[in-house]
Amino acid sequence: MSEPFRVAVIGAGFSGVMTAVHLLRTQTARPVQVLMVNRSGAMARGVAYGTQSPNHLLNVPAGRMSAFPDAPSHFLHYCQRRDPSVTAGTFVPRSVYGEYLGDTLAEAVAEASPNTLEQAVAEVRDIRPTAEGVTLELSDRRMLLADRVVLAVGHHPPAHPPELTAEFRASQWYVRDPWAKGWLDRVPKHLPALLVGTGLTMLDVALDLHPAGVVGAVALSRRGLMPQPHDPNVAPAEPGHRPPEIEDATTVREYLAAVRRCVEAVEANDGNWRQVVDSLRPITPLLWQRLSVPDRERFLRHLRPFWDVHRHRAAPACMEAVEGLRANGWLSVRAGRLVSVTLNQDNVNVTVLPRGQEQPVMLQVGCVINCTGPSSDVTAANDPLLNHLFAAGLARPDPLRMGIDVTGNGAVIAADGSPSPVLGYVGPLLRARDGEGTAVPELRVHAARLAARLAAECG
Ligand SMILES: Cc1cc2nc3c(=O)[nH]c(=O)nc-3n(C[C@H](O)[C@H](O)[C@H](O)COP(=O)(O)OP(=O)(O)OC[C@H]3O[C@@H](n4cnc5c(N)ncnc54)[C@H](O)[C@@H]3O)c2cc1C
After folding, report:
1. Domains defined along the chain, listed by start
2. Is residue 1 scored above 70 in pLDDT?
3. What is the per-residue pLDDT for 365?
4. Residue of 144, 153, 313, 369 to mutate, ligand 1, most atoms within 8 A of C-beta
5. Which residues contact ligand 1 via a Cβ below 6 A?
6. Does pTM top 0.90 for this prediction?
């Protein structure tokens, strides 16, 4: 039998696992050997699906969460085999999705022969192209050889709010990463917690803190905007919901005007703004790529907070539970700016400037929890592997540092602008190219496409 074609997949979240699954399923003249290396231990979970909390629900309904673009009901059927009451519109716990990914990978391995999967728990520290392929250097000092590498390194932990001093960041009163294991045990119960950020991460955190017996929480963001909930009574978007003028628009200002006009027209016709927002999803990459860099920057600075709360909606049950916590006074959501945070003996003094006011207010809290979501600056994320790739010119950040430059077929673009013959990328850093594309309905397409290209190169 011929030598196997070795593909190293770095990262075992959704993106890495699904690329591996497609590679294991391919039938090529040479067998494919997938080497999956994952830093965080648990395979097939990643940041999003590693949670065990039953309060953390998917924010996309079961009917749209299949891992396979060509089998849209795959996840729904998986759920229904476990619980026949699940429908296409049910928002199931994210932990179920983690089990689904694990089972999907196990099934692909069982049916893979002659293809194979090897898994390693380690961090890939460096990657060096050689005459024979690529060498990967692991944190346990092992070296791996591969013909191709898939970077599926996912999300970076939240960036620190700049108002926090180095001393405070290092203290036990600060939770930087509420997706890391064990953070809840460190939270004092007798004082409210300050949650910095009012988006989807804040909802998860509030729904963890309340049952843990913490006395209350204050959530703070510049505008105090919270995610909108999905509405199960709204029909899916149809082509007629897309703003007609957007076809010829080329600036953020024109996009906004077109969307506003369309929402008015759709709502006057008994439709809903959600249909207009959802109608843009398939053309978001196109709209993003049409914008100049200064206009993209304008969007990120002024419009993204509003876009995010309408586009990345919450499961209705999560939103209902959080609104209940606001109604009974446990949670207060405020618009304002963090001014300073100082440590006392056993509590934390926080100064906040409420939006539109000149007089700051003081709060006494038990801890500060960073709920600002994954870091959005790839150069500030302090990722050793990406930093090495940037330094060696094997990859480059996009001009806005949202992600890395990647070609349409998933090849990493080097500093000199050439597509890498050996490095591929799939995951949320594609937002540099596509504006978004960080959720399963997009990532499943990218993973399948990248695996198909690699299989074609396998020969
Ligand atoms: C909290 C949260 C909830 C979400 N909920 C949904 C949802 O309900 N529906 C939806 O469609 N999308 C959701 N998303 C979007 C989510 O981004 C995607 O669905 C998907 O999970 C991204 O997976 P990934 O594999 O690209 O990244 P990740 O899940 O971040 O996985 C990357 C993996 O790579 C590993 N890694 C990184 N660097 C290295 C290295 N150098 N060496 C070895 N291993 C490394 C990490 O340890 C990690 O396991 C959510 C995202 C978050 C953060």
Report:
1. 5-156+376-458 (3.50.50.60), 166-228+314-370 (3.50.50.60), 239-305 (no CATH)
2. no
3. 97
4. 153
5. 10-16, 37-40, 46-48, 58-60, 94, 123-124, 152-155, 374, 385, 427-428, 438-440, 443
6. yes
